[in-house]
């Protein structure tokens, strides 16, 4: 399966599996939800302890193996079922979260499949610093978070605010025009049974025949969403304190 910019290819963005090569980071709860979100500009942590509206679908208790790479031999392509199967690996008590996460790091070709030529290299450069620093680790907060909530939206939906766009971080409004319109991206949470809030991640997609993750891609465009240096961290996820105003 080859992901080519401009074709009718659908990619799953947010999870794991299907013979994954190294691919990137995680995500934040939607700032357009009822909860205030001060973390769209926070580079420090990808998993954010996010709240929000009702989930589109619930996952089962953890049970998939903790292999060194995120993969799914039985699930087909980049479907929601495949994404869920892959993510269950991160819920295994013996999972090697660092290795599983690293297997989702995108290649240059993967970034070009998810974003337009104008921004792909910028986003890759911004993410590289986080990957190389070992900060891109996807995992639940603790063993109590044993279920998965999962949402999907195409690049076109995220650009227009349609579909499940409201379940994604508000920064997708900035990056929307640069997303491959036919690629499907995923946002997900690890939650306790019966809970709505949990560790939230975004940017999971299935491109070029494997799963990758490219969270908070707008950081590659600079704070105003239109260029400049990538943002640097501060605070803990979207519950962190707002950045101080410049005098």
Q: What percentage of the residues does DSSP assign to strands (E)?
A: 5-15%
Our count of domains comes out at 1
How many strands?
A: 5
Form type: globular
Overall pLDDT metric: 72
Note poorly predicted spans: 1-45, 52-68, 71-75, 223-247
Helix content: 10-25%
Distance between the termini: 51 Å
How many helices? 6
Order of helices and strands: EHHHHEHHEEE
Content-based structural category: alpha+beta
The major sheet is characterized as: 5 strands, antiparallel
Radius of gyration based on Cα positions? 16 Å
Distinctive features:
single chain; 247 residues; 5-stranded antiparallel beta sheet; 6 helices; globular; disordered C terminus
List the helices and strands and how they pair.
Elements: E1 48-50, H1 80-87, H2 97-102, H3 108-114, H4 120-132, E2 147-154, H5 155-160, H6 172-175, E3 184-191, E4 198-207, E5 210-213
Antiparallel strand pairs: 1-4, 2-3, 3-4, 4-5
Helix pairs in contact: 3-4
Describe what this molecule looks like in 3D.
By secondary structure, this protein is an alpha+beta fold. The chain has one domain. It has six helices and five strands; from the N terminus they run βααααβααβββ. It has helices at 80-87, 97-102, 108-114, 120-132, 155-160, 172-175; strands spanning 48-50, 147-154, 184-191, 198-207, 210-213. α3 crosses α4. The model is unreliable at 1-45, 52-68, 71-75 and 223-247 (pLDDT under 50).
């Amino acid at each position: 399966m080859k992901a080519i910019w401009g074709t009718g290819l659908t990619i799953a963005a947010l999870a794991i599996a299907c013979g994954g090569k190294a691919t990137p980071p995680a995500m934040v709860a939607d700032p357009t939800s009822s909860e205030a979100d001060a973390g769209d500009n926070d580079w420090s942590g990808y998993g954010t302890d996010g709240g929000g509206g009702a989930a589109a679908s619930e996952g089962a208790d953890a049970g998939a193996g903790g292999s060194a790479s995120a993969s799914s031999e039985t699930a087909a392509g980049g479907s929601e079922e495949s994404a869920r199967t892959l993510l269950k690996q991160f819920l295994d008590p013996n999972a090697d979260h660092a290795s599983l996460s690293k297997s989702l790091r995108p290649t240059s070709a993967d970034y070009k499949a998810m974003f337009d030529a104008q921004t792909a290299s910028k986003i890759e450069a911004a993410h590289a610093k986080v990957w190389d620093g070992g900060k891109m680790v996807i995992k639940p907060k603790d063993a109590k978070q044993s279920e998965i909530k999962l949402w999907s939206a195409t690049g076109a939906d995220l650009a227009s605010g349609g579909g499940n766009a409201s379940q994604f971080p508000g920064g997708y409004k900035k990056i929307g025009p640069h997303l491959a319109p036919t690629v499907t991206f995923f946002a997900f949470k690890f939650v306790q049974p019966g809970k709505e809030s949990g560790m939230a991640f975004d940017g999971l997609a299935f491109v070029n025949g494997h799963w990758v993750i490219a969270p908070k891609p707008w950081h590659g465009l600079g704070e105003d969403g239109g260029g400049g240096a990538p943002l640097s961290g501060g605070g803990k996820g979207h519950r962190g304190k707002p950045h101080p105003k410049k005098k």
